[in-house]
Amino acid sequence: MRNIFIFIRVYFNxxxxxxxxxxxxxxxxxxxxxxxxxxxxxxxxxxxALSTQYNKVQYYFQLKRTNxxxxxxNENLYNKLKADFELPDSTSNKVVDSLKNDTIPSxxxxxxxxxxxxxxxxxxxxxxxxxxRGALQGIAADMGVIAPNNxxxxxxxxxxxxxxxxxxLLHEQSNLSARLKNSGETGTVVWDGIxxxxxxxxxISKSVKISAGDTVVTSGFSDKFPxxxxxxxxxxxxxxxxxxxxxxxxTPAANFQNLQFAYIIKNFQADEPSQLLKKVKNK
Amino acid sequence: xxxxxxxxxxxxxxxxxxxxxxxxxxxLHHLAVPYLYFLFILWLxxxxxxxxxxxxxxxxxxxxxxxxxxxxxxxxxxxxIAYMRPFLINLLISQEGTESNYQEPSAKSMGFTPYFTYIxxxxxxxxxxxxxxxxxxxxxxxxxxxxxxxSTALSLGLIFLTELLFTRKQRFRTNTV
Lengths: 283, 177
What we know:
The structure holds 2 protein chains of 2 kinds.
Chain A: H1 2-10, H2 12-33, H3 38-61, H4 63-78, E1 110-120, E2 128-131, E3 144-146, E4 152-159, E5 164-168, E6 176-180, E7 186-190, E8 199-205, E9 215-218, E10 230-238, E11 245-252, E12 261-267, H5 271-282
Chain B: H1 3-22, H2 39-42, H3 50-68, H4 75-92, H5 98-101, H6 107-110, H7 112-134, H8 141-165
Helix pairs in contact in B: 1-3, 3-4, 4-7, 7-8
């Protein structure tokens, strides 16, 4: 017993070093699996508050670009107004309406919630976006996030009271179901961690005809995004002869460099399919 | 300014510069990632206890991790270089009594070549561990090595600039032991 104490005293610095190394490595590898840790909620609020202060200054320098993107988004919405279209005159002909009550109820499925981006990075291996809107304002984990130009930027990973951490598309674990707009072929969008200007679309079969500039949109298979939101444009194709599928390099549609606003998509019907799936899996 | 106050101010400044300046500049190239914050550890006083150094290094890394949301990624290389630091200093210090004559490592207190070696080795070690932890899942060997070399060169450039811009007054303290 005495020898153990002597050993500990002699090698205390080394043991302390091993202890601190162990703590940091544990945090690093455990965070990926269980990112609802106690300290991260506290850290979120603290760093979020500081980032908000910084963003107040930085936001000013990007006002012009932010304004341009919002004007474009507005233009898009104006063009969808009912007043833009002339309906055929149906008042003069008599039609008997046999359907007295509308039997198809319409229910809202998606709700868009705006949020201010306070911190954003593009040059890390795993990039996160922090927005100033959290659980108290209706944000929950696993919601989809888009930029003002309708381009996907990521999904909510973690929320604290007033802030939410978004896993950007530029993240090693990001995984998005997308399809080619022309052919309808679906694949998975991932990031290889190298350049913020390129994301990869995988699992597209080689029978599909693809040309540069093709649009890639969300498939609507996941419960986070409605179908048809922009993801990116085809840049070129990596022809891997050993596999039967293409890996396509995309230019992301969202401009990750200067994000100032984001819309978080709330899906009201997300629970039902997932519960159903759970039921099937239990059988 | 006392050593304690000076180091607290430095701690905050290094974290703020790293988080709000170096991480925010548009990336030059995906292989060149600027890092400067670990200079705080290299500038700690000679006489600080080894455990205190490691705790401070851990705190520094963790503070940065809170901003980048990668808990433990920067803390691990920081603790490692804090542990290595005293061994290196013992090896590199040329004459007897430098630790007692000067407060902290600098080109003046250690001599230019030993100081440069000290900075160089710890920067390479820091970057190697950091990028190794980052690239555990993906990334080839060549990419890893290139990233270390280019980012180390960039960091050394930044450290050199910092040394030139912020000259630290190093008093020669005789008979103060």
